[in-house]
Amino acid sequence: MGKFNPFSFFKTGKKTSNFDPAPVSPEHSISVQKGKKTFTQGGESTYALRSVDFQAEIGELVMIVGPSGSGKTTLLSVIAGTLRCDEGSVTVLGRRLDNLSSNQITDFRRQNIGFIFQQFHLIPTLTCAENVSIPLLLQGWKSKPALEKAKEGLEAVGLGSKINQFPKKLSGGQQQRVAIARALVHDPELIICDEPTSALDSETGIKVMDLISAQAKKRTVIIVTHDNRIYKYADRIVELEDGQIISSTGKTHV
Q1: What is the pTM of this model?
Q2: What is the 3-state secondary structure (H, E, C) of 186-205?
Q3: CA-closest candidate to residue 221, choices 53, 30, 45
Q4: Which domains occur in the chain, in start order?
Q5: Which tens digit of pLDDT belongs to each residue from 37-46?
Q6: d(Cα 138, Cα 47) in Å, to the nearest integer?
Q7: Interior CA angle at 3 toward 212 and 198, to 5°?
Q8: What is the rounded radius of gyration, in angstroms, for the C-alpha atoms of the chain?
């Protein structure tokens, strides 16, 4: 509880030829119905999600906000498939995640979800292009075409001159742009962002959000944030408190 696990995306798991035995026709891009999650520590139980209903659509940028411990990260993790609800259903892009095995969820995530994190999580011993190519390599691409695709992605975020640089040579804003290129390189339908601007100054944060918000035109983008500087980019803001959604406001209504 409290921290999204970025490395879940990179789990290698056993490959499955048909990762979804029972796809459903999606009414929403994302649908969490009556989602409940409890964490137990030291004999005490904490309700992270209390019968939460949440939906999002393609073409929508939704921000999930609320105080620390409100359930934001738990909800994000449930949507990403890195955490399972104790009760309720989770449907993402037509797949009932609660009906899939761990290996099937890993395969689904590799194909369909891009992740952008607060701390970038770039591998320091790899060049920018090599970092961006990782999602493609996990899908089984050969190294050369994966690197070519990664270079295209870096050029798209204005870092064509940094292809062979290592992350430590880049500014924070540049590293986050590399992370955005990595999140987009496999053309996912869902982008999940965990505090993507909180480690950046205002000017850099705006540039990063311009890049992220542009992706919502043809994808679903979910952002967990404490950064009220970026609220203006949201189509909808969903507020959690004590594991419950207490408001949902904005330009779109679900």
Answers
A1: 0.85
A2: CCCCEEEEECCCCCCCHHHH
A3: 30
A4: 58-84+99-250 (3.40.50.300)
A5: 999 988 888 8
A6: 35
A7: 40
A8: 18
